[in-house]
Write a structure and sequence with these properties.
CATH topology: Glutaredoxin
Number of helices: 4
Number of domains: 1
Structural class: alpha+beta
Strand content: 15-25%
Helix content: 40-55%
Low-confidence stretches: none
Shape: globular
Largest sheet: 4 strands, mixed
Mean pLDDT: 96
Order of helices and strands: EHEHEEHH
Strand order of the largest sheet: 2-1-3-4
Distance between the termini: 12 Å
Oligomer: single chain
CATH architecture: 3-Layer(aba) Sandwich
């Protein structure tokens, strides 16, 4: 399974929803990078994604986007394939 990395903050309902969806699809480990406690990580996230909001989710080297993007990918049937490295 591809590694999942998520930029997040301490309290973020969309981060929680993303975690729940990923868990439903079999993800047991997510590398969480807290941007609210580390300004360097916030800057890194904005440079990597060109976005300012959380969550920002990477599966392997692929930037999926935020929760809405993750949910749309799942509805289209692409999330499991990406997690399994088949996309």
């Amino acid at each position: 399974m591809n590694k999942v990395t998520m930029y997040c903050t301490g309290y973020c309902p969309f981060c929680t929803r993303a975690e729940a969806l990923l868990a439903q699809r079999g993800v047991t480990e997510i590398e969480k990078i807290r941007i609210d406690t580390d300004p360097v990580q916030r800057q890194d996230m904005m440079e990597r994604t060109k976005r300012r909001t959380v969550p920002q989710i990477f599966i392997g080297q692929t930037h999926v986007g935020g929760y809405d993007d993750l949910a749309a990918l799942d509805r289209q049937g692409g999330l499991v394939a990406l997690l399994e490295g088949q996309a």
